[in-house]
Design goal:
With about 475 residues, this protein is mostly helical. It is built from 19 helices and 2 strands.
Length: about 475
């Protein structure tokens, strides 16, 4: 008898491997490009510095995809996963950089990655703190905060947008929407990249923007500690610390979904810790290279369903391509020259989708349940206050400003505490010593026992079964 090979473990001929891997790269390339440009614009990096960070992120995406697809010991799920820079984590990274500086933000990434690595053995207990209701609030707040940051790419540091920048961002969004509506397959999933390319072309032709690639050629390695030596501040790192714990719930859902899609029996107890360890390891490297937390994504599942090829060796090959692209200096330096308004238009699309994902999570959590709508409402109110009124906590002590000044952290903590409060309130009261539980007043029907033809219970007609084992 021949052993059945799961679709995830099937080998793909080299002739098909490269084009299939390229499809995965095209489908996910918009995420690292948009997050790096959002970070670079917020931190006012030069084109050369932007190219270095983009190179680092692409290499990390590739190495993480290789690690998740092939696995090493108990690190990596050996499933067809692609690793990406977390869009939500990037928003928190930018926020910490704006408040405390990029060196503190890099130290916060290192702390968050170390925390995730440390709590993996407690996975079962931690994940209960972040049910879909809490995760929905968190993701929705992240999306809203990120759209606000993306808008600053269009308005510029002064906050007063030029007419040309608004028009250029609008054209980018319109082309992205058109590509998404009328294209199919991998081209539809690359709609954000198509919108960025079209927006850049319009900027060059019309003069609404400039395209100035950074000089350089050949291969180059990403710069180590581009913002200086990381600084560690636990209070400043709190937004990323909370987010790193909340990712365990998201990792669980994505791992189960990917296992089912790739024809492997889901085993969260084994695979989720492996995925989390790989995320934490690559995030440690990200903190040293000036990037935010890296997260494993299931965005490539659509490609697997489209092509019918669910092999993890395809995503491993995509990881190899990403590493090569990240080290190819001319490509990353060319992408670093895109006009900020074009990147802002693309970022609006990407991060508005994150907000919609939060709405979907809230819908799946069942807001009709007792107290669920109240939990979501109060948590969103707490989380939105610092977003709509940034100066609300300016008169409070520093630790309060750090804790409540982040809408994501404040809203998430409020959702966790409120969810726990309602769970305790709904718990039935325990009976004290000597007290008896109330008996049901319903009349008890006489117990009927099945009879044999002799009128005795079946157990009387046969010897007791021997104990197992």
């Amino acid at each position: 008898m021949t052993e059945t090979i799961a679709p995830a473990d099937e080998r793909v001929p080299v002739g098909r491997l490269v084009p299939l891997a390229l499809q995965h790269v095209l489908a996910m390339a918009a995420a690292p490009v948009s997050t790096v440009f959002l970070t670079a614009t917020a931190l006012r990096l030069s084109p050369a510095e932007t190219a270095s960070v983009l190179s680092a992120v692409l290499v990390l995406c590739g190495a993480g995809s290789l690690l998740q697809s092939l696995g090493v010991a108990n690190i990596g799920a050996r499933l067809p996963f692609i690793m990406l820079p977390g869009g939500a984590a990037t928003a928190l990274f930018i926020q910490i950089s704006a408040d405390h500086g990029p060196a503190v933000a890099c130290g916060s990434v290192l702390l968050a990655a170390a925390l995730l690595l440390a709590v993996v053995p407690l996975y079962g207990r931690i994940v209960r703190l972040f049910p879909p209701l809490v995760m929905g609030v968190t993701v929705l707040l992240i999306g809203i905060a990120m759209v606000r940051v993306a808008a600053q790419l269009i308005t510029g540091p002064t906050g007063e947008a030029a007419r040309g920048s608004v028009v250029l961002a609008g054209i980018t969004v319109a082309v992205t929407l058109t590509a998404y509506l009328f294209l199919r397959g991998v081209w539809r999933q690359s709609a954000v990249l198509i919108g960025m390319a079209a927006g850049t072309a319009v900027a060059v032709v019309s003069g609404l923007g400039t395209f100035s690639p950074a000089p350089g050629s050949g291969f180059s390695l990403p710069a180590l500690f581009p913002y200086g030596t990381p600084r560690f501040d636990v209070l400043a790192a709190l937004p990323l610390l909370v987010f790193s714990l909340s990712t365990l719930a998201e990792i669980t859902g994505q791992t189960v979904l990917n296992s089912e899609t790739s024809g492997r029996k889901p085993d969260p107890g084994r695979d989720v810790p492996r995925v989390a360890r790989a995320d934490a390891l690559m995030s440690l490297f990200a903190g040293t290279l000036g990037a935010s937390l890296m997260v494993t994504s299931s965005e490539n599942i659509g490609i697997s369903r489209l092509t019918g090829v669910r092999s993890r060796f395809v995503t491993a090959a995509a990881g190899g391509l990403l590493v090569a692209v990240g080290l190819l200096s001319p490509l990353s330096r060319t992408v670093a020259g895109l006009p900020p308004a074009v990147v802002g238009g693309s970022a609006l699309v990407v991060y508005a989708v994150i907000a919609v994902m939060g709405v979907q999570m809230l819908a799946r959590s069942g807001l009709t349940g007792r107290g669920h709508s109240m939990i979501a409402a109060l948590a969103l109110a707490v989380g939105l206050l610092p977003i709509v009124a940034p100066a609300l906590y300016d008169e409070f002590p520093g630790w309060i400003r750090t804790l409540l000044g982040s809408g994501v952290v404040a809203g998430t903590l409020a959702a966790v505490l409120l969810h726990a409060l309602f769970a305790v309130a709904d718990r039935p009261p325990r009976t004290g010593p000597g007290e008896q539980e109330p008996r049901s007043r319903e009349p008890r029907s006489p117990e009927r026992r099945p009879l044999t033809t002799r009128g005795r219970p079946p157990s009387a007609d046969r010897a007791p079964a021997p104990p197992e084992g």
